[in-house]
């Protein structure tokens, strides 16, 4: 078990190296020069050169990357080019908000999707099943930013039930719901598939034969096994979640790292962009690891290799 | 292919979806014929006296946008761009993904593993970030946007194709062919690729909904199709600040994107069920 | 003598008439202001956007400042100043009893340190270039430890020597880049002074949670008695402008920092309940299109003049809900040097076509117009595109991120750029500020902001001459000189001035203060030091 974790963590480090390298290269292919933006409107050419040297942007790319890695190992992600503040400070201040949103989004997606999937599986082949599946697909197919905007319009503006943007417990509902509409669809389909598989297993019939009511049998025996692929999916979902967080955070003004990333892209703030990307990659890979570690808890037959 | 139609026909939802897709394609391709106005003309009477967009009325069937342009015409012409990008991007993603997946799955060993590690790496980078960065680096045209989306989407296809290829490669008829001295190209083209076609078909259809949405997202963030060229996501992008006053500018394009994406999803799903009954119980 | 008495009488009359004092502001209470975007930084040597300027100007002070709500210079940390006869030596005397928020007394060394900090390349200040007129600037940029041109004659006297006489120097010294900071706090913050600011201003820093809120509280030992009136300022971030307006109407917040969103503008302005709650003022702002004089066919002055005549400015102002007025010249109306008699190029597409034919383009030509991809700029670019199409010019719109547009302009690669989102708001209220950085020869290319690539040596010389008129008696003549410079510039048409945006600040009923305080042209948009809460006891 320990060996497995160590190996996986080593893989995390390798992935981070790869991600940072790729992002670094991409950023330096960008056609715009950040020095122009940062030097301000009154800078003389000498000031620009001095700034360029100060930022280390006059070095060749591999050298810059090496310097960056060296500092990264010590936990220093450099300073935001635009805000002149430590990137790690900015990310640390905003990361909790994003993690909270991700957690809320996953909970909401599961709450929305799992019951729907179970219900559809138990009523397999009938109209409610078909309707539930089409509704799931509709959720998946709806563009998230439109869903977000429309939820905002309906619940916050017209009905006034929920606050419009900002940070706090009540404020997390709409953004989490927006994500849940899309993700819940996948979970419900997944749940339906695995439930159907589980329901046809022998041990289910044994349980029924012993006299357990159907729903008890489902909950006690079927559920745990049906959850396995869901857990794996939650892990994979982290990737898509972080991707969509940029949009959700900007629609709802949620003060997380997605918002920070978007501002960084607008200002060509290289250090912020790389810092947030690496942080996102870490979150994704750790989440995957967590998901994989949870599976043997659900099904002791599974062995991690 | 003929044996696909029969089971498909039974799925009402899929049939309706095919109908929707056909209708959208016809309308979009025939936009110059069907659009009552030019999509880029800024009408003086398209805005109210105080400069606000107009709701649907006799002249402008779905209302006007913030520059006084006819929304309906823009949706039609936008459909051309959005669908074109969706198809191109998906096709390219399929191509790249299949190439990578087949090669990695066939040769396996260290090289194959390395290729798949690289694929894992690409999955760890937030797709949207990659797309935005690429869109900024390259010029912003319809073709480049399609390419960018393809470069972000090929990974999924590669993984699935890889798994399938590995499975196929172990099958007897492939081993037999190799034992008989068939070269890799022959084995791939004669024996493996044909068996991959059903999967490709399924992912081809399902993928279009993702690519259409990704295009909408890129345009929504301002890095997609350039104005005044309309695209569904771009219309929403331009109009978000007027959401409270002119919700039709967000609702109509949103509904269209939903309908198209949903239709492709339902058709793809039905195809998957029709092609392989076992697939129903596997992870999607 | 008589003249002085008369002016004093006039001054007293003016002060008596000022509504702010007539309402007897009370001490106490708080105000809540919302913004959509987070502040970038509170470091005065670094902060350079309109959103953080007003806050920085409340946390810090400089030698000079402006009368609240106006563009009139007045001494701030300095009690008085003298200028030598040749205009190259300024001597400032600091007031007594100046303190930093951490309790330490302010000395002339602190002033020297602060200005040097702006020039020091290690600070990466975007405003260091303003001080190039001080002796020793080049050496310091090259690596010298300090500015030889600034000396602290004693604890309360600062002497600054310039390379040449500069009529704008007092404005430069009033910029936030010269605000006084305590060296020990800067060093303690280790590079993060921007999130832990310590200054001498009316408000001191309490806390900043990035993306969420910033809290400031009244500095009891502020050098100006009675000021600030408010006890506490809270800035909330991440608030959508539409939401902010709704919350303001419900009484939850005091000022909608981002202004009134375009979609709600007409509705709110026409609501009589809001009559006293919306302050309207002029900004030192011009939105314009730059025409690249280095790229054919825009290098032909007739083509540029034709473009000026082809654009329908009234329609564009309507697109932005009439929140501004069409512009006739580079300078905005509130700027000294603005010429009321300059009518600019009238909208005349037929004449435009005729000019194009004269220039050799009877069938127009193809070109590009760059714009920042944040609403409403792509819309405005498309409106301009349509106007140009009507005279035969096919302009492709390139809607890009801010950084890219600035870069394209800096490399003089873009034929036309709509300045929206990056439009010039004056750094200080002097006509010179609109010239050197964006129309002068030295700012062409290499990242400079003269995106029009326009270089007129003769005008440059006249500009330098005008700025050497330092004496107070020469002020009127100087303003006339600048008027002449800009009028002659208009003949070359390097820009199409489109509109001058006004500032509309929507505030709650409980906040009091003269309208000019809510549309302060320097402390954009609100001068927090002088507004007050009517509910305070």
Architecture blueprint of SSEs:
The complex is a heterotrimer of chains A (305), B (284) and C (537).
Chain A: H1 2-29, H2 34-39, H3 45-55, H4 61-73, H5 87-122, H6 127-141, H7 144-158, H8 173-199, H9 202-209, H10 214-252, H11 257-266, H12 270-298
Helix pairs in contact in A: 1-12, 5-6, 5-8, 5-10, 6-8, 7-8, 7-10, 8-10, 9-10, 10-11, 10-12, 11-12
Chain B: H1 2-10, H2 12-29, H3 31-34, H4 71-107, H5 109-124, H6 127-137, H7 142-169, H8 172-179, H9 184-220, H10 232-239, H11 248-275
Helix pairs in contact in B: 2-4, 2-11, 4-5, 4-7, 4-9, 5-7, 6-7, 7-9, 8-9, 9-10, 9-11, 10-11
Chain C: H1 2-17, H2 19-22, E1 30-34, H3 50-59, E2 64-66, E3 73-75, E4 78-83, E5 89-94, H4 108-119, H5 137-142, E6 150-154, E7 157-161, H6 169-173, H7 183-189, E8 203-209, E9 213-218, E10 232-236, H8 241-249, E11 255-256, H9 262-270, E12 278-282, E13 285-291, H10 301-310, H11 313-319, E14 324-326, H12 349-358, E15 366-372, H13 377-390, E16 394-400, H14 402-410, E17 416-418, E18 424-425, H15 436-439, H16 457-467, H17 475-492, E19 495-506, E20 511-512, H18 515-518, E21 532-533
Parallel strand pairs in C: 1-10, 1-11, 15-16, 15-17
Antiparallel strand pairs in C: 2-3, 4-5, 5-7, 6-7, 8-9, 9-10, 12-19, 13-17, 13-18, 13-19, 14-19, 20-21
Helix pairs in contact in C: 10-12, 16-17
Brief account:
The complex is a heterotrimer of chains A (305), B (284) and C (537). With 284 residues, chain B is mainly α. Chain B has helices at residues 2-10, 12-29, 31-34, 71-107, 109-124, 127-137, 142-169, 172-179, 184-220, 232-239, 248-275.
Descriptive overview:
The complex is a heterotrimer of chains A (305), B (284) and C (537). Chain A contains 12 helices and no strands. With 305 residues, chain A is mostly helical. The longest helix of chain A has 39 residues, at 214-252. Chain B is elongated. Chain B starts with a helix and ends in a 9-residue tail after the last helix. The model of chain B is unreliable at 279-284 (pLDDT under 50). By secondary structure, chain C is α+β, with helices and mostly antiparallel strands. Helix content of chain C is 31%, strand content 19%. Chain C has helices at 2-17, 19-22, 50-59, 108-119, 137-142, 169-173, 183-189, 241-249, 262-270, 301-310, 313-319, 349-358, 377-390, 402-410, 436-439, 457-467, 475-492, 515-518, and strands spanning 30-34, 64-66, 73-75, 78-83, 89-94, 150-154, 157-161, 203-209, 213-218, 232-236, 255-256, 278-282, 285-291, 324-326, 366-372, 394-400, 416-418, 424-425, 495-506, 511-512, 532-533. In chain C, strands 12, 13, 14, 15, 16, 17, 18 and 19 form an 8-stranded mixed sheet that branches. A 5-stranded mixed sheet of chain C has the order 8-9-10-1-11. Chain C is globular. The relative contact order of chain C is 0.16. At the B-C interface, loops of B face helix 9, helix 13 and strand 16 of C.
